[in-house]
Specification:
Elements: E1 3-4, H1 10-22, E2 31-33, H2 36-41, E3 56-58, H3 59-67, H4 72-83, H5 86-99, H6 115-119, E4 130-131, H7 133-146, H8 151-154, E5 158-161, E6 164-167, E7 183-191, E8 195-204, E9 207-216, H9 225-239, H10 249-254, E10 259-262, E11 265-268
Antiparallel strand pairs: 1-4, 2-3, 5-6, 7-8, 8-9, 10-11
Helix pairs in contact: 1-4, 1-7, 3-4, 4-5
Length: about 270
Amino acid sequence: KKRDVGGLSTLLTTYLIFEAIHEKKLSLKDPIKLSEKALSLNNIEGAGTLPMEANQYTVEQLLTALLVGNSSTAALALAEKVGGSEKSFVENMKKKLAEWGIQSPHLINATGLNTQTISGDPDGKEDENQLSAYDIAVIAKHLLQDFPEVTKYTSKPTALFSNTQIENPNLMLEGMPNYRSGVDGLRVSNSTKGGITFAASTTQNGIHMITVVLGVEAVDGDPYARFVATSSLMNYVVRTPLFLLLSSKKEILTGKVRQVLWMGSLRLF
């Protein structure tokens, strides 16, 4: 079911940015001048506000701001650079999802921010990017598979941005309150309409898995609720393996190809 996912949709934004880098359309050292539209997001509470004293940053600096600091300003600046405009970039997002078989996504921007949050008008239109938990998992799978270097950023508990130490809101990373060995990302978000969300990547007992939790109930504003829910889900996957062989009789006999469906994630052996 499609749900409001807020900033989790920036996993797709990130994919397209890394794709542009790999296609030599963009370099980590390229400077990007921030547009007024991008800078305006830095004044919005909950949009990953970071110190943006300069009007120009490199692609690598903005990736750090996006993937460690959850900066919406960085997401938009990178999207505008790659797509020429946010509108054009969003069309590219939709095309990429179509390539992956994800139908009828509701995408309105590259940041995942709610339109009401952007406008600052409490009576304004309230709209947000909508995807299913499965859609998010598919995006994360392609991101990690095609550009594994993304974890160089997402696995950092802290990083330097513009001479200021910024902290990753993913509290399951090393040194954090909900630390769990093996976790190397990916994205935390507080969706205005969809609530508390988290897409995680981890390797547990030799199993690489992606988990997605949407609309987590945080009793009394518990800041750890999404991480506790994610850890429980990871435990369940590790302790309760469900195997389903998807092979022809000949392949099973020869052992050449075995496809195993593990808790909804296809693993190839």
